[in-house]
UniProtKB/TrEMBL annotation:
This is AAA+ ATPase domain-containing protein. It comes from Vibrio hangzhouensis. Residues 174-365 form the AAA+ ATPase domain. Signal peptide: none annotated. SUPFAM superfamilies: P-loop containing nucleoside triphosphate hydrolases (SSF52540). InterPro entries: AAA+_ATPase, P-loop_NTPase.
Length: 448
């Protein structure tokens, strides 16, 4: 699984909605105080000692909210106060914000251990499920209509993609699921990876969401790309920042292939600790989730497709939480399936109806194919000749191989390797091309 972060054709981004305001009271956080207290204890156990500013940065809360939490913990003798000193830190009873560090008492360490046993999440304070759902719905892709120019920009440089523009534009605006199908090597995965470049808006993603006694980690460095530095902004003015429990990101663009399992679509913990992680569809909210190579997963196609029927129909997904309770989360994303299979082989008519848009991919036309080859040769600093291109055409004709867009990059790459090994002049000759063709294709004409 990987997040697609190519900057190819990416437009200048602007937030789709106004930023979430900075919370100024415990009530406005919409999260139980005990959850925040436990999180604060875990941070202090991790940091050993920290001041108000550091704790404010770690939890993404204003210093006066941190102070309010601290007062409760100090009354229960869970916190000790240390005077800042150039030589050492000594126990001190001062409450001056500017000259003290805070650490855990022995009782506080015990409470922190209990908190870690409940869940190992440590990071900015979570947002409530209600607040998360509200923001996700406001950032729905369907609220940001795209036009022909947007699609053409996203597909710029993709040879033979002109016929897709009037198809993919309405499909993306609909917000409905897509089925991209066609022979292997026709560019389905690559085109799918570029679709989000048609949108010029960024979205707010929470670091974590709290619901029914559980903190679920949402923001992922692997899947989300920040576009500002609000979390490290050095300002105390609320009107110069937004709620630091959120971060502004490019729209998610997540692709998963044969490694997909049903467990990845549920709340699960990481291998090394009990940090509960959001499922793929939650990570992809307000963006794109590509299920590549449909039919090659370890789970059956029927089981996978049945998992999506209700979310696709009602834009709501129901998750079972670690506590055993169920939570309903928004399913506000564009879901794209890519497959080499015939659509009639992958699901019943009821499921195909819910997919909404089916886009077939074809081999390139001869002109587009040879334009692509020349472009690949230039990028590899290799010369091609009209004679070599005619010879390549004869290879396609004699072996009955269509003009798949994956072939130029692969075959020219093999030509480059042969030229480098044999220390030849950087020119593709018939001899080199024939050798590369034999290495790339099996005896039955299938690509490597």
């Amino acid at each position: 699984m990987n997040a697609i972060t190519s900057s190819l054709n990416r437009p200048q981004l602007k937030p789709q909605i106004e930023a979430p305001g900075v919370p100024t009271s415990m009530e406005s956080l919409n999260v139980p105080v005990v959850v925040l207290e436990n999180l604060l204890l875990k941070h202090l156990a991790h940091e050993v000692k920290a001041d108000y500013l550091e704790l404010s940065r770690l939890l993404g809360l204003s210093t006066h909210l941190i102070e309010e939490l601290m007062q409760s913990l100090r009354k229960r003798s869970l916190i000790e106060v240390y005077q800042k000193n150039h030589n050492d830190l000594q126990l001190h009873q001062s409450s001056s914000k500017n000259h003290v560090l805070f650490g855990l008492s022995s009782a506080g360490m015990q409470e922190a251990e209990i908190a870690f046993l409940k869940d190992a999440y440590i990071g900015p304070a979570p947002v409530s499920l209600a607040d998360y759902s509200h923001i996700v719905k406001l950032q729905d892709i369907k609220k940001n209509n795209i036009n022909r120019e947007h699609i053409e920009n996203a597909l710029r440089g993709i040879y033979g993609s002109e016929y897709m523009v009037p198809i993919l534009g309405p499909a993306l605006n609909s917000g409905r699921a897509l089925l991209l199908y066609g022979h292997a090597g026709t560019g389905k995965s690559f085109v799918a990876a570029q679709l989000l470049n048609a949108f010029d808006t960024s979205v707010y993603i929470p670091y974590a969401v709290y619901t029914s006694g559980n903190i679920v980690k949402v923001f992922s460095e692997l899947h989300h790309k920040r576009v500002d530095n609000n979390e490290t902004a050095q300002t105390i003015h609320f009107n110069q920042q937004y709620d630091r429990r959120w971060t502004l990101c490019e729209r998610p663009n997540i692709q998963v292939g044969g490694e997909l399992t049903l467990e990845m679509l549920e709340v699960n913990h990481s291998e090394h600790n009990r940090v509960w992680l959001a499922p793929l569809q939650m990570l992809a909210n307000n963006g794109l989730l590509i299920i590549d190579d449909l039919g090659r997963q370890a789970i059956s196609v029927d089981a996978l497709l049945n998992r999506w029927i209700v979310p696709m129909e009602y834009s709501i997904d129901h998750l079972v939480l670690p506590s055993g309770q169920q939570a309903s989360i928004p399913f506000v994303l564009t879901l794209a399936f890519s497959t080499n299979l015939n659509p009639l082989e992958i699901g019943d008519p009821a499921f195909l109806r819910r997919l909404g848009y089916k886009v077939e991919f074809f081999p390139l036309l001869e002109k587009d194919y040879f334009d692509l080859i020349e472009n690949v040769c230039r990028s590899n600093n290799i010369e091609s000749s009209p004679a070599a291109l005619r010879f390549l055409l004869s290879l396609h004709e004699s072996h009955g191989v269509p003009f798949y867009p994956c072939i130029p990059k692969d075959v020219v790459g093999i030509c480059r390797d042969i030229i480098s090994f044999e220390e030849r002049e950087s020119v593709i000759t018939n001899t080199v091309l024939e050798a590369a063709w034999r290495l790339y294709f099996t005896s039955d004409g299938m690509g490597g």
